[in-house]
Design brief:
Elements lengths: L1 E9 L2 E7 L4 E5 L6 H11 L15 E10 L2 E10 L3 E4 L2 E3 L1 H9 L2 E4 L1 H6 L3 H12 L3 H46 L5 H13 L1 H16 L2 H15 L4 H27 L4 H20 L4 H19 L1 H47 L6 E13 L2 E10 L7 E2 H4 L2 H14 L8 E5 L7 H14 L4 E5 L3 H4 L4 E9 L5 E8 L2 H13 L4 H25 L1
Parallel strand pairs: 3-13, 3-14, 8-12, 12-13
Antiparallel strand pairs: 1-2, 1-4, 4-5, 5-6, 6-7, 9-10, 10-11, 14-15
Length: about 550
């Protein structure tokens, strides 16, 4: 749920902090006061496009923060535009794209632009699936992904078969070359070290002899023997005697190790030649197969697997065909189940939305959901939903994009959201320009449905109609007034009492707050409560 929106230096808003509550939140204000700025600010926090032209004159940048919360958990989405533009999620650097991805799971925005997204068949299909309250679309997507992988694996094998014997022989030749090389991990490093030893064998032998002679010197042994005798006379020398014993043993062991090393030295020129030849071979292999001995060994294993697979390519292709066909069968079965669920949901939606439209004073209108098969089963199923509409009796029903006006689209979206309220997983719904082209009883019916939506969702509505505003659970008024510098500044104020709300409703109805207008505003508030209670009893 959206808990708070903080706005700084956006258009006419110098600074505003707007708190929202559960239920129906209404924003009202005089024409030009900047009501839609609040919805626009939320849109920016949710990743909508923004530019430097939206920054308040005289400021370097505009900033918007939207705070969402459920229980003790909180999430803050921040967006800056203008100088040093950027995005943050809980203070961590982010991008507008990431804000949009997060926003899709938090808020459904229904403004002028968003209403027109209803004309897209993909959106219409998503709305139908949400109404159907089924997870079959996820099942189809998973089955489609598995079928795609299986088909790609089969295609790879078939391409290998098409390349024919030439490819097969080339793979065999590469494998034979690597096998003949007799590669062993780390061999090149070992040979490089041995090459240095062979090149300097004579010098190393001389130095080894000197070291051995030095270690054989009986000086350490005499010192150890003398100290052992001294320790017998003075026990305080026992520790020192023990240390000299250790040195005597270490010198003896070291002398033996040096002797063994010098015995292995080989100054034979033929050995050096063999090492150089082997290293040259390994260097050639490394250059051809990845730059290191380890990568060449990995390539050898890969070629072996590939050759093993191509030895019985016919069997491999047959197995891949069976796997592809199995995955296709599962995909088709899942798609049929989704089609059946969509068909049943389309019938229910047609009836439910049609009834809502009559209540929204679109008498005589007709609504239908047609399922249009796609050329092949995709990750979203075997068809797309196309919503059809006729505004007046006698007019042919046709796709929404061809026949629905802006005001009709807004009410149609409200009708769909109303009938889908139980299955709609988004907690916050935002409606802007919902009241375009309506008034009177239609406005009351719109208000009733928004009130009902507010029992299941948090609903934010920008409106200029008092009939709709009278249903608010939480009423905010947007006002524009001269600031300290003489420029107009937009502020947002919460209306807490019936008297405050009545004054705002009176202004919306008549432009003034005469006693007659205030009396009618109080009547409207009471009527909205009565109508909402009746609607609630009907739902129960």
């Amino acid at each position: 749920m959206l808990k708070e929106l903080r706005v700084r230096d956006l258009a006419l808003v110098a600074e505003a902090r707007v708190r929202f509550e559960p239920g129906l939140n209404l924003l009202t204000g005089e024409t030009g006061s900047g009501k839609s700025l609040i919805a626009d600010a939320l849109g920016l926090a949710l990743g909508a496009r923004g530019g430097a032209d939206q920054v308040r004159h005289g400021a370097e940048r505009a900033s918007v923060e939207a705070v969402f919360g459920s229980g003790d958990a909180a999430l803050t989405l921040q967006r800056d535009i203008g100088k040093r533009a950027g995005a943050r999620v809980d203070g961590r650097l982010s991008t507008p794209t990431q804000l949009r991805e997060l926003g899709r799971g938090l808020v459904a925005m229904h403004g002028q632009h968003e209403h027109h997204s209803l004309l897209d068949t993909q959106t219409q299909t998503e709305l139908l699936d949400a109404y159907a309250a089924t997870d079959l679309r996820v099942v189809v997507a998973g089955a489609h992904a598995a079928w795609t992988v299986a088909a790609a694996a089969l295609a790879d094998l078939e391409r290998l078969k098409l390349r024919g014997e030439r490819e097969h022989e080339y793979v065999r030749w590469q494998l034979e070359e690597l096998t003949a090389a007799g590669l062993r991990p780390g061999e090149d490093l070992e040979l490089a070290a041995e090459r240095g030893a062979v090149r300097h064998a004579a010098k190393l032998a001389e130095l080894g002899h000197d070291a051995t002679e030095g270690l054989r010197d009986e000086g350490v042994g005499r010192a150890a023997a003398a100290m052992r005798s001294a320790a017998e006379l003075d026990p305080r020398l026992s520790e020192l005697a023990a240390r000299l014993d250790v040195l005597e043993q270490e010198a003896s062991d070291a002398a033996a190790d040096v002797r063994r090393y010098t015995d292995t030295l080989d100054a034979d020129p033929s050995r050096l030649e063999a090492i150089e030849s082997r290293l040259a071979l390994l260097d050639g292999v490394k250059r051809k197969y990845g730059g290191s001995l380890e990568s060449a060994i990995d390539e050898q294993r890969k070629l072996k697997r590939q050759l093993d697979a191509t030895e019985d390519l016919g069997s491999a292709i047959a197995a891949a065909e069976r796997e592809r066909d199995r995955c296709r069968t599962e995909l088709e079965a899942a798609a049929r189940r989704l089609t059946a669920a969509r068909t049943a949901a389309a019938d229910r939606m047609q009836s439910a939305v049609g009834a809502e439209l009559q209540g929204l004073r679109l008498e005589g209108s007709r609504f239908a959901v047609a399922l249009r098969p796609t050329p092949d089963i995709g990750p979203d199923g075997a068809e797309l939903a196309e919503m059809m509409f006729s505004a007046n009796p006698g007019e042919p029903i046709a796709p929404l994009a061809r026949v629905a006006s802006g005001g009709e689209l807004a009410r149609l979206m409200l009708a769909i959201k109303t009938v889908s309220a139980a299955s709609d997983r988004l907690l916050t719904l935002v409606f802007d320009e919902l009241d375009a082209g309506i008034g009177g009883e239609a406005a009351i019916q719109v208000g009733l449905r928004l009130k009902a939506l507010g029992t299941r969702h948090q609903v934010l509505v920008v409106t200029h109609l008092a009939q709709i505003a009278s249903f608010a659970d939480h009423h905010l008024v947007v006002e524009k007034a001269p600031g300290p510098d003489g420029r107009n500044v937009v502020t947002v104020r919460e209306l807490r009492t019936d008297d405050e709300r009545a004054r705002e409703l009176a202004r919306m109805m008549s432009g003034g707050t005469t006693s007659k207008a205030l009396a009618r505003a109080h009547e409207l508030l009471e009527e909205s409560r009565t109508n909402a209670n009746k609607k609630a009893l009907q739902r129960s």
